[in-house]
Amino acid sequence: MSTSVNGVGIAYEKARADGRAALVGYLPAGFPTVEGGIDALKAMVDAGCDVIEIGLPYSDPVMDGPTIQAAAQQALDGGIRTTDVLRTVEAVAATGTPTLIMTYWNPVERFGVDRFAQALYDAGGAGLITPDLTPDFAPEWVEAADARGLDKVFLVAPSSTDERIAMTTAACRGFVYATAVMGVTGARAATSDLAGPLVARTKRAIESSAPGLPVGVGIGVSNGAQAAEVASYADGVIVGSAFVRALLDHPGDLPAGRRALTALTEDLAQGVRA
Fold first, then answer.
1. In degrees, to the nearest 5, what angle opens at C-alpha 42 toward C-alphas 26 and 24?
2. How far apart are CA 85 and CA 92, in angstroms?
3. 53 an active-site residue?
4. pLDDT digit string (tens) for 57-104?
5. Which residue in 52, 76, 79, 127 has a CA-CA distance of 20 to 30 Å to 1?
6. pTM of the model
7. Residue-level pLDDT at 29
8. Is the dihedral of CA 224, 269, 34, 75 positive or negative?
């Protein structure tokens, strides 16, 4: 399995060597401001995130729950641009932490697929997570990513057929994103009982289609105990809404928000090591 120089596969390999799952943290760029967002993401890195996902705020976030929608809208109201997202990637990737953009496909298409891939590569980004793009409709992105060694992270869900999971894992590089909750994103009080079976099905497909490919799970994890539960069967624990909520709960007070992010990250980092 090939990986890019800055690829997330390296972070997963390091975590696996430590006998634990990787912690993947998400925030949208430009939230609460561009510079404030960079500071917040660096706090998450310092406190234990192994991989960072940076959201590209979009005006029609149909897969996002209210928490992430609120943060993205705040970034859009602040005038966030794709160039600001790329600048955020550059700043976070400079820490040595593999950094991905998570985005709906329309902004990439409007920017220009090859141009976007080159800009992401130039910023030191690891690759792209595309929740509304499936591999069979992604030839232009696959070609652009492969030309630069960028990671291609596609999603599988409990509703995915075994054939669809096999096709998806074969197309991924870096990791495959198992979204184990049917519906929009958001932190939850309990983890989904669909996650374990989905990961098992995905790992069976990986054995033949993409040996060694890690499986990261996004399931609404909001604390260390939930992270430990997911880490018992997944290679990576992906957390988004809980990080966003930590900042939303401290409007206009970035130092307090940063302290909340640090405490949450440390709790989650302990969880993936439990």
1. 30
2. 11
3. yes
4. 998 766 677 899 999 999 999 999 999 999 999 999 999 999 999 999
5. 52
6. 0.93
7. 98
8. negative
- Say which of 50, 64, 229, 235 is annotated catalytic: 64
Query: Position of tokens 């943060």?
Result: 71
Backbone angles phi, psi at 192, to 5 degrees: -80, 140
174 has which bridge partners?
none
- Its sign, for the CA torsion 208, 160, 54, 104, is positive
Structure tokens at 53: 């996902």
- Amino acid making up residue 171: A
Q: Are 29 and 57 in contact (CB under 8 A)?
A: yes
Q: Which domains does the chain have, with CATH numbers?
A: 8-267 (3.20.20.70)
Distance, in Å, from the CA atom of 218 to the CA atom of 180, rounded to the nearest integer, reads 6
Q: Please give the pLDDT value at position 60.
A: 75
Q: Which amino acid is at 30?
A: G
- Residue 127 phi/psi, 5° resolution? 165, -160
Which of 39, 46, 53, 114 is catalytic? The answer is 53
Annotated active-site residue 143? The verdict is: no
Q: 108-120: per-residue pLDDT in tens?
A: 999 999 999 999 9
